[in-house]
């Protein structure tokens, strides 16, 4: 009897499935010209809004499709959106879908006018994808700048003209995890922050998580920027050259065999060979003119222009032994070098009562060099084991270095007799090295249409060395650190209904220097009330184990440095992130509102203002504090058409609290900015494109000195001190500027030439960077140091 019942149930199950047949669709999304995989493209079923994203190798899977007739919608930032009906889909084999770039000639495919030109929002809260290729249409100084373009997003500060680093929702650049093909990049800019360190010709995809981020990421407390390098064309040789008033570069995509191809790019400034007007404008602004005074006509100062150059190299080798596997080797190096050495002479005759008579010469020989950069490499094996399972196994290493040396050699001689009356030498050097080696395994497993699980493991060894010394005898700070980190994570994307998605995650980390397990829970949820209205919520706890220490020096500026947390001098950083949002979106427009609240714990700062004597233990000059950041962002974007762009407004507040500063009361962080408005527009007409960006930001805080005073010691010596007011108690004037760019593209056969005229700060606004103070006068004098004024740039790019 039981056996007959079981057979009956089996027959009913077979009949039920025959009546409601379910279909699985899997495939790969490629570039139509190069056959390069398109990472993180969107694939949706139009009738149900069910969908998925392709993985880093372009593979996607849709499970348990019940509809007999349906339409797939495939979109990718910077590419034409493609619609495919179920009639043309063969579900018995993997699909190969090829998307064409915007403005490309299309063959044998049907597309609509709908496409995403610059930025594309995600189902995940606070996640945005940008197209490096489309970024080239926006105004820039030099060439396409990835991080400068990211600064145009709401919640990302756009008024830091002297830094390509990203200040995101109250976080600082060191609190962002920046990854390039799995490699951690610590130095993200060139030329003291004015240019991004990433060559857009080498980058395929840029994803930014502005708030909470998935459990597969860890080690930072604010945000994640994940860059995927180009693997290059697998069909034809492609390349290009670019030239502007600051640097020149080239890239080459070379298919060696059908399964092996190489992509390489190189970029270098030529400012050490030929100094253009653009270089001189930026150099005078960032480095400054000679700071040697000339109090006497006989004082001969040799005006030596700083010798400066930067370069970066990207190499990516991709080997595909089969349709399911890829072995990728990636290499990156970025380097900056600055030589500010100079010689000054002062000829004088001593008075008649001097013991030594005769014409004398005072010579100051200054050697000052700075060398800094980042070297990184990774080796990755990816495999699509089947429609449901994908793995990514990698090893990666990275090294950041910053070496500063300054030596002053002062001599007083009598040239006639070749006699040296006295000589004096003083030196200062500051070296900082950060090295890490990481191995990790990441898995993506599609259980069914309701659950997509991700899990993985990571091991990292980090070493940091920092030395700040004077004259080989006085060591201000010396730290040599090493620590191991191990982490495992598990996350799930659960869709119990078509409208509701819940994504819990958990990351478990063991950090050697803290000798304890750290739990990082993550969770996000979204509810699609209608086809165009979605509500989102998210929470995440994040830890940070390597920190860039803020070095506060009122008189000498900032020379920040990296150290590992050790829970003694520097505690492990921690942040709790809360985000909520509403999205309204149709085929033409996107309106997004997000509000956030962040709690930062164990912030670190180093300050010399509390050094009462030269023998003080510098460990006592490291201070710990906490912080809070909150805000609300509004974004209105026109996604498609000849006129595209967005307007955004951010209202925010960032406050820190250190016991030693401001009597322990909260004070505004240096990057606190209450109001920020951004307008980005691009208009395409024929072969021309006109784009413009406008940025307005209310004034940022700074610490204003109250004057200089002297203290007489018991031995009769005097020590001079600068008295300062309330920490960050004053505000700079508001910042605003307008940039324009005009692009013209000319295509002759397979060669495309792009001419670009860019105008930075069109109406020549004198935005104040900081103030300089001269305490030799009473009252002391204040001088405004401004950012760049109107700065034009011409660039030429040739692609073949």
What's the layout of helices and strands?
Layout: H1 2-19, E1 23-31, E2 42-45, E3 51-53, E4 59-65, E5 71-75, E6 80-85, E7 95-99, E8 111-115, E9 119-121, E10 127-130, H2 132-135, H3 146-150, E11 176-180, E12 183-184, E13 189-190, E14 195-196, E15 203-209, E16 223-229, E17 238-244, E18 247-257, E19 260-269, H4 277-286, E20 299-301, E21 307-319, E22 325-339, E23 342-348, E24 360-384, E25 389-414, E26 419-446, E27 451-470, E28 474-494, E29 500-511, E30 516-528, E31 533-544, E32 546-552, E33 561-564, E34 573-585, E35 589-607, E36 622-638, E37 643-658, E38 667-668, E39 675-685, E40 688-697, E41 701-702, E42 705-712, E43 718-724, E44 730-731, E45 735-748, E46 751-760, E47 768-774, E48 781-786, E49 791-799
Parallel strand pairs: 1-7, 11-16, 32-35
Antiparallel strand pairs: 1-4, 2-3, 2-5, 5-6, 6-8, 9-10, 10-15, 11-12, 13-14, 15-16, 17-18, 17-49, 18-19, 19-21, 20-23, 21-22, 22-24, 23-24, 24-25, 25-26, 26-27, 27-28, 28-29, 29-30, 30-31, 31-34, 32-33, 34-35, 35-36, 36-37, 37-38, 37-39, 39-40, 40-45, 41-44, 42-43, 45-46, 46-49, 47-48
Question: Can you walk me through this structure?
Answer:
With 800 residues, this protein is mostly beta strands. It has 2 domains: 97 residues, Immunoglobulin-like; 672 residues, Maltoporin, Chain A, CATH 2.40.170. The protein is built from 4 helices and 49 strands. The strands form 8 sheets. It has a 22-stranded antiparallel barrel. Strands 9-10-15-16-11-12 form a 6-stranded mixed beta sheet. Strands 3-2-5-6-8 form a 5-stranded antiparallel beta sheet, with no helix packed on it. A hairpin with a 3-residue loop joins strand 27 and strand 28. The longest helix has 18 residues. The radius of gyration is 29 Å and the shape is globular. The termini are far apart.
């Amino acid at each position: 009897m039981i056996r007959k019942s079981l057979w009956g149930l089996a027959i009913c199950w077979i009949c039920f499935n025959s009546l409601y047949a379910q279909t699985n669709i899997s495939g790969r999304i490629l570039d139509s010209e190069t056959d390069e995989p398109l990472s993180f493209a969107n694939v949706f079923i139009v009738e149900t809004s069910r969908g998925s994203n392709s993985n880093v190798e372009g593979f996607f899977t849709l499970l348990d499709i019940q509809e007999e007739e349906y339409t797939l919608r495939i979109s990718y930032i910077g590419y034409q959106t493609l619609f495919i009906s179920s009639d043309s889909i063969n579900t018995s084999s993997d699909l190969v879908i090829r998307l064409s770039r915007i403005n490309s000639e299309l063959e044998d495919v049907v597309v609509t006018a709908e496409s995403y030109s610059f930025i594309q929002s995600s189902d995940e809260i606070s996640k945005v994808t940008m197209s490096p290729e489309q970024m080239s249409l926006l105004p820039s100084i030099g060439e396409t700048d990835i991080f400068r373009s990211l600064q145009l997003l709401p919640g990302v500060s756009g008024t830091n003209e002297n830094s390509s680093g990203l200040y995101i929702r109250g976080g600082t650049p060191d609190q962002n995890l920046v990854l390039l093909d799995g490699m951690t990049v610590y130095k993200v800019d060139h030329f003291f922050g004015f240019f991004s360190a990433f060559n857009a010709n080498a980058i395929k995809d840029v994803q930014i998580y502005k708030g909470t981020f998935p459990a597969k990421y860890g080690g930072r407390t604010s945000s994640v920027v994940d860059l995927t390098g180009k693997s290059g064309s697998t069909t034809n040789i492609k390349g290009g050259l670019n030239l502007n008033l600051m640097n020149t570069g080239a890239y080459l995509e070379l298919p060696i065999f059908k399964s092996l191809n190489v992509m390489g790019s190189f970029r270098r400034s030529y400012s050490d060979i030929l100094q253009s007007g653009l270089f001189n404008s930026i150099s005078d602004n960032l480095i400054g003119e000679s700071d040697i005074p000339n109090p006497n006509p006989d004082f001969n100062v040799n005006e030596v222009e700083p010798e400066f150059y930067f370069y970066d190299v990207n190499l990516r080798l991709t080997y595909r032994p089969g349709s399911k596997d890829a072995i990728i080797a990636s290499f990156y190096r970025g380097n900056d070098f600055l030589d500010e050495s100079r010689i000054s002479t002062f000829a004088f005759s001593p008075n008649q009562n001097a013991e030594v008579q005769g014409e004398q010469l005072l010579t100051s020989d200054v050697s000052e060099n700075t060398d800094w950069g980042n070297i990184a490499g990774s080796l990755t094996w990816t495999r699509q084991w089947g429609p449901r399972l994908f793995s990514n196994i990698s090893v990666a290493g990275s090294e950041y270095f910053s070496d500063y040396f300054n030596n002053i050699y002062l001599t007083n001689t009598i040239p006639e007799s070749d006699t040296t009356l006295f000589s004096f030498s003083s030196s200062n050097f500051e070296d900082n090295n950060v090295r890490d080696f990481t191995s990790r395994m990441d898995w993506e497993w599609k259980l069914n249409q309701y659950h997509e699980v991700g899990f993985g493991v990571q091991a990292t060894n980090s070493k940091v060395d920092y030395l700040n010394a004077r004259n080989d005898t006085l060591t201000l700070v010396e730290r040599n650190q090493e620590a191991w980190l191990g982490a495992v994570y598990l996350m799930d994307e659960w869709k119990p209904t078509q409208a509701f998605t819940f994504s819990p995650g958990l990351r478990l980390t063991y950090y050697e220097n803290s000798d304890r397990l750290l739990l990082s829970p993550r969770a996000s949820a979204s509810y699609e009330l209608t086809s165009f209205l979605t509500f989102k919520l998210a929470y995440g706890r994040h830890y940070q184990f390597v920190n860039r220490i803020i070095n506060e020096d009122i008189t000498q500026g900032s020379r920040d440095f990296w150290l590992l947390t050790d829970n003694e001098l520097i505690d492990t950083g921690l942040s709790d992130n809360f985000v909520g949002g509403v999205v309204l979106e149709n085929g033409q427009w996107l309106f997004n509102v997000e509000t956030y609240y962040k709690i930062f714990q164990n912030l670190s700062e180093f300050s010399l203002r509390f050094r009462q004597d030269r023998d003080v233990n510098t460990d006592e000059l490291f201070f710990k504090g906490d912080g809070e950041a909150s805000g609300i962002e509004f974004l209105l974007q026109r996604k498609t058409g000849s006129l595209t762009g967005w307007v955004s407004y951010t209202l925010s507040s960032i406050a820190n609290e250190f016991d030693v500063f401001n009597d322990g009361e909260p004070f505004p962080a240096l990057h606190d900015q209450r109001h920020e408005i951004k307008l980005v527009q691009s208009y395409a007409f024929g072969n021309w494109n006109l784009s413009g960006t406008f940025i307005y930001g209310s004034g940022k805080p700074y610490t204003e000195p109250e004057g200089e005073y002297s203290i007489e010691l018991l031995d009769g010596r005097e020590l001079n001190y600068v008295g300062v007011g309330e920490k960050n108690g004053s505000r700079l004037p508001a910042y605003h500027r307008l940039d324009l760019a005009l692009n013209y593209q000319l295509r002759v056969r397979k060669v495309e030439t792009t001419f670009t005229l860019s105008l930075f700060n069109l109406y020549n606004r004198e935005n104040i960077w900081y103030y300089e103070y001269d305490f030799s006068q009473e009252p002391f004098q204040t001088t405004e140091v401004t950012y760049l004024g109107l700065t034009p740039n011409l660039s030429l790019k040739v692609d073949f």
